[in-house]
Specification:
mainly alpha, two-stranded antiparallel sheet, 4 helices, globular
Length: about 100
Amino acid sequence: MVIDGQQRVLKLTLGALAELEQDLGTGSLVELVQRFEGGGFSSADVLALIRAGLRGGGAEQAVDLMQAEIVGGPLAAARVAAELLARAFMLPESQ
């Protein structure tokens, strides 16, 4: 994802997921997944997921997402957030 002209790595680690639950005040991440699947997510949900993904991806400093320019705009950000959630719950491929 490109934020403010910089390519950023996003990843939802277990720690990032735990922080995400706290930040959003959801009872479980399943509730958040259901909101995304049903289209009932908010822009705050999207920002929280991207913020958690940045932390999990190793961002050393916080990015001010309220002022950030995200390539592709809000729709691209929502797609990335949904993909982060989906990947966090995918079973690893058998090797």
